[in-house]
Structure formats: structure tokens, C-alpha cells
């Protein structure tokens, strides 16, 4: 019953790999159902106002059309302040693209045609959809993220900054960014009397179960949420979205199973997005590059319903030693779709600004950008004064610089050329908190010698079920193939969201605990397992309460080499290299893929991604994958990923930090810094598109 | 009710015959009528490649084709690539190189790679093939694979591993 090689740290292939390459892995709309009906949502075509009439006559003329739902006839939902699930309950329009009706038919084609045939009349009101740095509606939110203060102030920033030898005062902007998982938000809903089963594309089956139970006034055990396989989420499936609610409403109305997959061009308005940010950074330093004063002041937008603040000034509270500091968040309510989580909310846009400013400071001080960061390494977390459970940013920077060949580069600006291309390199740091959330799990030993681990974890492509099997097998001291892992259903012991890079810690911990106890029980009974087996349940509430206070974060360093074509203004990334310190890496194979994936999305943020608010029509102009450019295969170079062996006893029994998000943090800054090194042009607004770069390049190179 | 037309095609070696709404796409025929849910709908507009299948041996975006126009064709989907329990070499390579995460784009990526390798063998140039390249099979270098696989988006960002997987099989 013992294994020779440790399972934790082994590059185990994904347990569901075979299903995924043969097409048998089932996603939300892949489950066969009888008498299936199809639903197609109708978005509002005005920005703000009220529905005055809905004419479904033409739509209902087709006998294939089973129902047209709107606020006039849709099932009533219990009240909630969640804008994503409050659908078809009121004539009020809060943003363009908000759902106003739903066509349900016996075929997809009929549902789609019916949706187009529904006539909605509105009374319109003036709208305001454009974020400006001095918007009159800006206010200080009560908190940002989960319970973090909007503002923090240490020492005397203003005086120290005013007296600093070197001062940087710059404003960075990031556009609205869209998650666009490859699987659009989708659900299949079936009612059996008062019992609801949904196959839903989400990152949190327990959370969606709770939400549906509340909305439909059901006991939680009457709601079954299955998310066996999820086609990506990147935050946008972290809680219930409209499709699962609409499908459940429609299924109840037409008394058939209903499938609903959102059309791609409706995602930008209905599933959340990363809100645009305007970030002012001021750094006051001495001539040796020691930071004395640091301010990061953020302006962003939220919707008129709900509140989500892209908490981009938060990473500045943990990155660098700065005795006098200020971090603030201001937000304004616009008539826009509700923003929400997108991969590394806060850290991702915030570190673009901070790490670009560090590059500017390094140049102002005449210092190497790696050296500047080493000089400002804190001994305790600057904001809280807490010791770090582990912090190896310095090691990441040094190791990355060595592997990248950083010190061999010509540090002078706009001097390296290869043919007609301008060549440059840049560096940036990465950080992301090591979160853990309360979760439950069960471990079961069967009489036949097999084991089963049950936890309502969500494997959205992270490799969660694989790493949980590794954790379980190692804790049990048994071979990997004797452990069956059951995830992806709210019928399993409740567990937390696949978000905040917290999955492995939050689910793995109770799995480890249950398996450790099961192993003890098995030893106690001499492995005489009764016919019904032995089941051990565990949760980690007590362990979380008893945790010592530490600042727990993963860190990393990213290096980029770019080439800029001075004729076209096109930037291409030639190399990306990341070195991370993220605790113990439990599965190097899936971990490497996640780091690479995050960096790939970061490359998209730097060079390709961004959408523009249409001030007249009140929605994002780039709503599909032809106009909103995510990286394609040809955009992505070789990406080299490494990590530091980091032992941290203050995390969880596995010693792991999350790795799902840190890869996207810092990439955009490293690339933008490389573009500056190549060209001398500092573009402070992303993405770095050829048109923006070309104009400035002409000035810079004296071609104007 | 939309106008209906009878269609017969061969899907993964089996005859499939059905009276279908004229508005039905090949993608919806495969998913909703033939119950081959391995074919994925990512955008329904030919922008993402998740619905890629092989039509008479060539890769196509099945969301852009009307089913009624497919009468008499041979379609191969991801379900038709493996030989019983033996994986197609590209399926094996995708597993070995961890060339996916969420897996939603994977069936399309693999079908597209089958098509891309056949196109290169048949000597079809791509945008990165040298203008003075001799006629005949095109070697699938890293830039060639990146270019030829760029019709299949992967938001998880598995491209680096996808390129390795495709090159291994193309050798």
C-alpha cells in the first residue's frame, strides 16, 4: 500500500485528457435530453429607459415557438441585488444589451428567428457611458474586492513626494477587457416537479446552487448543478450568470428541458468584463533609486446596478518598501454593463501601471530596472507590517535575468536593430495573493480496495481533478490509479469557487485532511474495510480560524523581448520568460501550462485586447472574436517558464500557492517596457496598437 | 416552421439521413441531430475554429456551412478520428504535450491539425512559406505551424504546447 515515488510534484497527465481529445468530455450543452427546447435571448437596443411594449405576435406565429418570455410573463424571482441574475423582472433598462425577452422553440433555428421577430418599444432617457478622470459621479467605495479598504495612507506622502530628488508622475490607462472563454456561458435546465437540475458552465457549482435556490425559492437540496467540464471562465463564470437562470425559467414555463448557449456577441454586455482604469502613479525617490513616497490612485467605472471595483491600487500595498504611501480607489456609476472578475482582477491592470512606473523610475535614476527593484525590496509587507510567509521576488528577478541573458543586453534606448526591426527587452514583477477559502471534502475507502474523493470543486481547465487525485493518493499512501476523484457537481460536499487562484489550496486541504484521517482509520482497523466502506468527511473552518497572521503572496518576474517594425508600427513579442515563486509546485506539467496560459493572455492585453465604448449607442463596439482580438497561435512566441523551489510552512498541508492568475500579472508591463527600450516611445495606454505606436514613432525617430 | 429538405451524408463512416430545416448549419446538424457533441460552438461565426471538422478530408468551419448543401459529403469529426480505443496520433500528442486546458477548443484544434498536416504534405503554401520554395511538401516548421493553426483560437493559451504536439506528428 505504499508508493515509491512522491505523487506531489509529479508531472501527472490530466485525468480527463482522453475525454477531452476524443470529444467525449461533456460541457453544459452536450448532455442528451428528450424533447429538448432551445432558448435565444433578446438584448435591449437602448441604453437607459423603460420597456413600454412587447409585441411577440410575429414570433409566436411559428408553431415551433413554444413561448416568448419577458418581464410581463416570466416566472417571478426572489429579489437580489445581483445584476447578472436579475433577468426579465422589470421593464427598467439599465444598460444596452440587458436581456428584455427570451424566445423558446423546439429548434434552435426557430428560437433564433423568433428572437429576431420580437418587437420591443422603449421610452428612452439620456445616458452617460464614458469614463473620464474627473467624472462628477466619482465616489469612494465602502470597500474594494472582498473586504479591502478603498484607501490606505502611510506617513506623509505629499511632503515627502514634494521634497524627493527624483519624481515620477504619470497616468496609465487600461481599456475594458473581455474574458471570452471559448465556451460561451451556457446551460441546460430540467425540472422534475419542484426539483431543478442544471448542466451549467460555471466556476462554482455550490455557489450557483445557492443562487438558484434563492432565486426560485427552493431548498438547496432541490437544486442540482453539474459542471463536470467547463470551457474556461477566467472569472466570468465565478457566480451565476443569466443563461442558467433564463434556461431554468424557460424550462419551467414550457415543461421541457431547455438548452441555452449565449451567442458570442452578447457576452460583452452580459457576463462581466474588466472595467477600464485610469491610474495615476507618483513615485518620489532619492538618486540611488530608494523609494520614499509612492502613490497609486485609481479611477474606474461600475454599473448603475451592483458595484464592482477593479481594485488595481491594491498590489502597490505589498510590492515595494515605501515609508510614505497612498493608495486610493474612486469609482463612478455609468449606464454600462456590470463589470466583474477577470483573471487577476486588481493585480493585472494595477501591476501594468506600477511596473511601468518602476521602469520609468529606473531610467530617471540611471539604474538597471532589475537592480531598482532589488533596492526596494521590503522586509515586511509595507501596508500591514506583517511578515511574509515567504517572498522570493529577488530570487525570481535574479534567476530570470540570468536565464534571459538580461545583463548582456545593450541598455541604451532605441539602439538595437535587426534589419529594419527595432529590438528591445523589458522586465516586470508579478504578484498574486495566496488565498484559501472554506471548503468541505469526503474520502471514502471501498471494500474492494478502491478510494473515492468527493468535493464540489470545479475543474475549469486548471487540472484541479488531477492535482486533487495526487494530493489524495499521497495522503492515503496509495497508487494514483486507485483513487477516483469526483468533482463538478453541487451534490458533492460544498466547496469554494474556482477563483482567486485558491482552488488547489481550498479543496486540496480538506481532501488532504479527510484522506489523512481515513488512512489513520484504515490502519486502526487493520484495513478490514466493512462492506459499506469507510467515509471520512472534513472541512477546514477550524484550521482557517487558527491561522497565524502572515502576508501570503506568490511573486514572479517576467522578461520580454520585442521587435517593432518602424514602417508599420507593429510590435511582435519574440521571447517571453517567467520565473515564479509560488510555493510547492504540485504538478509541474499542468502548472507550466497555467503559467504559459496566463502570460499568453497578458501578451493579448499588451498588444491586442481592448474594447471601446460607443458613446452614442452605449455598448462596447468590439463584441465578437473578429473585432476583439485575443492572441492567436501566430501571435505567441516561445514562452519559457521556470520556478523557484519555495518551501513555505505557513500555507496549507501541501505548501502550495495558487498559480492560475499570477502568469497574467506583469506581462503587459514587461512588453510595454520592452517596446520603450526598443523605440524610446512610452505608450501609457494599452493596447500597444500599431496606429498609436506609429504616430509616436514618427516623432521619436524624427520622421514626422 | 422553416422549409425542410432531406439530406443524406456520411458522418464518421456512417450514413446519416434526415429531413432538416433549411436554416440548419452543419455544426447544428452534428451537435443537435447526430448528437456528436464533441464538435463545439464557440462563436457560430467562423471566427474561433472550435467547430472545425473535416469535409471530404479538408478542414472547414462547420458553423459556416448549411447542412442542406452537404448532401452526399463525407464528414469526419473528433469522434471519428480514433480507431476504437486507439487514439489518433494527434490526439495522443495533444495528451503528451498537455496541449489544452479547458478542452473546449481541442476537438477543433485536432481536426484542424489533421487538415493542416495534409495540406502541407500536399504542398499547399501558407502566408509564411518562402515565395521561392520548391513545389512539393512543405516542412512544418514552428512558424508554419503557428501560421496554419491560427484559425483555431485557444483562450487558455495552450498554443506553445499545441505547436509542439502538431510538429511531433508532422515529422
TrEMBL record, chain A:
Domain annotation Aldehyde oxidase/xanthine dehydrogenase a/b hammerhead: ranges: 22-126
Name of a matching Pfam family: Ald_Xan_dh_C
InterPro entries (alphabetical): Ald_Oxase/Xan_DH_a/b, Ald_Oxase/Xan_DH_a/b_sf, Ald_Oxase/xanthine_DH-like, AldOxase/xan_DH_MoCoBD1, AldOxase/xan_DH_MoCoBD2, AldOxase/xan_DH_Mopterin-bd_sf
Keywords: Molybdenum, Oxidoreductase
Record has Transmembrane as a keyword: no
Listed PANTHER family: ALDEHYDE OXIDASE 1-RELATED, XANTHINE DEHYDROGENASE
Record protein name field: Xanthine dehydrogenase family protein molybdopterin-binding subunit
Biological source species: Streptantibioticus rubrisoli
Lineage, top ranks: Bacteria, Bacillati, Actinomycetota, Actinomycetes, Kitasatosporales
Automatic annotation (TrEMBL), chain B:
InterPro entries associated with the record: 2Fe-2S-bd, 2Fe-2S-bd_dom_sf, 2Fe-2S_ferredoxin-like_sf, 2Fe-2S_ferredoxin-type, 2Fe2S_fd_BS, Aldehyde_Oxdr_Iron-Sulfur, Beta-grasp_dom_sf
UniProt-recorded name of the protein: 2Fe-2S iron-sulfur cluster-binding protein
Keyword set, alphabetical order: Iron, Metal-binding, Oxidoreductase
Residues in 2Fe-2S ferredoxin-type domain copies: 5-81
Organism: Streptantibioticus rubrisoli
UniProt key word Transferase: no
Domain of life: Bacteria
